[in-house]
Every structure is written in C-alpha cells, then in structure tokens.
Amino acid sequence: MKPNTAENPFPASALRSGTSDVIAQDLGMARSVFGDRPQSLTRTIVRLASPAVAENLLQTLLLMIDTFMVAYYGSVPIAAAAAAGMLLWRLHMTLGCIERGTTAMVARRWGEGSREGAAQASGQSLLLAIVIGGLLTLGGILWTPQLLRAIHTPEETIPTAVPYMRVVLAASIPRLVFFVGAASIRAIGNTSVPMYIALAMNISNIFFNYLLIYGKWGFPELKLFGSGISTAIALVLAALVITCYLVRASHGPVLRLRHLRPCSKTIRTICRISLPSLLEEVVISIGFLVFFSFVTRLGTIPLAAHALATRLESLSFMAGVGFSTAAATLVGQALGCGSVSLARQSFRQTTKLAVGVMSAVAMTLVVIGRQLLQLFCNEAEVVELAYLILLITAVEQPLLAIAMTLSGGLRGAGETVSPMLASLLGNLVVRISASYLLAFPLGLGIYGIVLGTIVDWLVRCAILYIGYAADRWSKVEL
After folding, report:
1. What is the pLDDT of residue 66?
2. pLDDT-derived band of residue 28, with 50, 70 and 90 as boundaries?
3. Within 13 Å and on the Cβ side, how many CA atoms surround 324?
4. Contact between residue 167 and residue 153 where contact means Cβ atoms under 8 Å apart
5. Model pLDDT for residues 443-468, shown as the tens digit of each residue
6. Residue of 236, 216, 203 whose CA lies nearest to 72
7. For residue range 306-345, what is the model confidence (pLDDT) as tens digits?
8. What phi, psi does 23 have (nearest 5°)?
9. Is the CB of residue 140 less than 8 Å from the CB of residue 91?
10. What is the 3-class SS of the chain, one letter each residue?
C-alpha cells in the first residue's frame, strides 16, 4: 500500500542540495514509497522539525506558564512548582517512554507502505498508555508527600506542592494518551497536527490559570493548586482531540476498535524497543532526582532561581527535542524503504541544524534573559541568581543539540541501547559526582551544580557518537 505522499518526509527525486549520488540512487529505488515531490533534505528537516520544535515548546510552556504565573505570590510557590514539576516530569517521561517504541514501529511500518501495520502499532500503544497511566495516577497520588520529601523539598513548600502535584497526576492517563498519539502522528511525517493541539492546550491552560490562580470572574483564588487544575483540564482536552484525529483522519494510520484489542506480538515488540528507553528513563529519573536534591538542599532562594533559569533554558532545550523528533522520523522511514545512505545523511544534516538553532536561542537568552526574568519575578536576589545560572547553561546548548539529535536518530532506527548507556553513565555517574564535588566539597554551591551538567553532556556526546559510528543502528530488525 502506498502511503499518502503529502505525509511522506522523503521525496524520490531529490534532495537537491547536499545529497550524494548514492543517496539519490537509493531514493530512485524507493520511488514507490516516497513519491515524486522534489525537495532538499535540509528543507525536509526544517518542515518536520519546525512544528515539532513548536509543539515541544508549547508543551514546555505548560510548566513554564504555571511557574511564571504563580511567581506573583513569591519564592515559596515558585519553589513548590519546581519541586512538584520535576517529579511530574520525570514520572511521566519515564513511564511514557513507550512513545519511543511507538515512533520506531509506526515510522517503520509507514515507510514500508503498511497503513494497517501503522494503525495496529498506534492502537496497541494507546492501550499501553491507558494501563500505565492508571497505575501512575493511583501510585503517584498515594505517595506524593513521600516523593517530595525524598528529594529534600524545603518543608515550607510541601503544603503548597502536594495538592498541585496530586491534581496533575490525576490526569496521567490523558497525558500518556497524548504522548503516544502525538508520536504516532509525527512518525508518519505529520508534525503539524500535534503542534496545533499543543497550542490549543496552552491557550486552555492560560485561560483556566487566569481564572483559578488569581480568582477571576467569580472563581476562587486557588494560587498554585488552581494552576494544577487548569493543567489537568488542558491535558484531558488534548487527549480527546488527538484520539478523535487518529480515528477520523483519512491520511494517517486510521484507528479502529480492532486496533485496540490486545495483540501480544505487537505489544511485545513495542515493549522490546521501549525497554532500553525505560531503563534509560529510570536512570535519568534517579540521576535527575538525586541531582535536584542537591539544589533543594541549598534552600528556597537557590531552588526558585534555578527553576526560573531552567524554565527559560528549556526554550533552547525543547528546540533540540524537535530536531530529535525529526531525526527519529527521517531515519526510521529511510530504513523502512531500505536507504541506509539517506538515514546517515539525515543524522548529519539534522545535527548541524540543531546545533545552529540551539546556539542562537542560547545567545538570545544571554542578551535578554535578565529582562525576561524581571517580567515574572520581583525578588531581585532571585532574578540576579537566575540570570547568572542562565549564563552558565548557555555553554552547554551545542552539546545538548548533538546528544539529543543523535539519540533521536538512533531511537528512530530502533537502536535504543546506545542512548540508554549514554544516560546511564552521564546522568547517573558523571552528573551526580561532578555536581556534588563542585557544589559541596569545592564550595561553588548552585554554580557548581550547573557546571556539573556541562561535564555530563560532554560525556554523553562522546558515547552517542561512538554508538552512531559503530553502525549497529542500520541493521536493527523491527
């Protein structure tokens, strides 16, 4: 079955710029899969990455907006949102890692021309999302206070953080459904739809934030708890919309009830691909939470400053996530049509673009970062410390770009072991040891903690490049 060429990221004719004759020949052999629309690889990457970048920025804005809108009430709610937000992010990213298997499976089936296979992979991923999300909701809500204390959250912030975290955890099923639904749509080369849904999700979140945080139009003034309710509402709406799209859209993997009936073979394949990513995310979570506990031990002011700086830095970070998504889609579909040469070219070109964009965003934040921070926080000590942190984190953005893009491409090929090893060594060993040594024995405090992350990303880049150069990713069978 020939997939809709409008959703196909690769043209058969021609990557006019920067493409070797070998790749052009490979594309000629794959003409029946990719169609005849001429387009350069760079333009293809930008077309895929731009909506993905925008989507990830919009998803990041959910926490960013929550943090900045409650900053009106001072450093305590900022710190509470930071601690709860870190736990929520790691819980959802860890157990939502099935989207990695979803991306690889759907991209490969779509690249092979099997619409039914892509739909089957999407349906089984949604089924897994519902089960995992339900377990996360139940366990997370029961253990919220214990989780917050485990990362040494300042005691004065816990009464504020607990209700916020619980209400967002209650929306875990919708969040994971949105994760895997968006992954299915992006894997066929359509990155615009998830972006538009994320935009609508943010508009909804801002609207309900205004009503419930500040108590407008007769609603109660709920402060941080109000932002949690609005986030949960936005996630439910996003999950409903993306499910409707998968059911009704005729130019994608059209979802039907039969695709939701448990299929042990497909579920096993998704889990097999996702298992290294699960181990990777567990390692990342352990590393992040230990690392974050170093920040919380320094007190409420450093915690609030670190939260504000990290929220702004995420504007660059999420650009990298977008290019990672583009790399996963391009590499997965290229291998699906049998073009290893095109997959290699996709790796190289996507990485170059990611480094350029993320470096530019970092420099922009260096120039206007202090002014942006002052818009949202009126505590001068917090603002100045956050800006100094932002200056240090600008250095690591090119490293982030390389690591994230290589990880995305390897996962798109179904090779999830190298990214897992990079996270294992970098996040669990290098980041923790370097940050602790610099922050406490050497007395650099919050600056040492941030410098430790630069060392971490250097190590990850080296490991991922070795994994790419070893070429195992081109031989993975799905």
Report:
1. 73
2. very low
3. 24
4. no
5. 899 999 999 999 999 999 999 999 89
6. 216
7. 888 887 887 777 778 778 878 888 888 788 777 888 888 8
8. -65, -40
9. yes
10. CCCCHHHCCCCCCCCCCCCCHHHHHHHHHCHHHHCCCCCCHHHHHHHHHHHHHHHHHHHHHHHHHHHHHHHHHCHHHHHHHHHHHHHHHHHHHHHCCHHHHHHHHHHHHHHCCCHHHHHHHHHHHHHHHHHHHHHHHHHHHHCHHHHHHHCCCCHHHHHHHHHHHHHHHCCHHHHHHHHHHHHHHHHCCCCHHHHHHHHHHHHHHHHHHHHHHHCCCCCCCCCHHHHHHHHHHHHHHHHHHHHHHHHHCCCCCCCCHHHHCCCHHHHHHHHHHHHHHHHHHHHHHHHHHHHHHHHHHCCHHHHHHHHHHHHHHHHHHHHHHHHHHHHHHHHHHHHHCCCHHHHHHHHHHHHHHHHHHHHHHHHHHHHHHHHHHHHHCCCHHHHHHHHHHHHHHHHHHHHHHHHHHHHHHHHHCCCCHHHHHHHHHHHHHHHHHHHHHHHCCCCCCHHHHHHHHHHHHHHHHHHHHHHHHHCHHHHCCC
In the chain, where are the structural domains located?
Answer: 5-475
pTM given for the model: 0.64
pLDDT for 412-445, tens place per residue?
Answer: 888 878 888 888 888 888 999 999 999 999 989 9
* Comparison of pLDDT for 138 and 377, the residue scoring more: 138
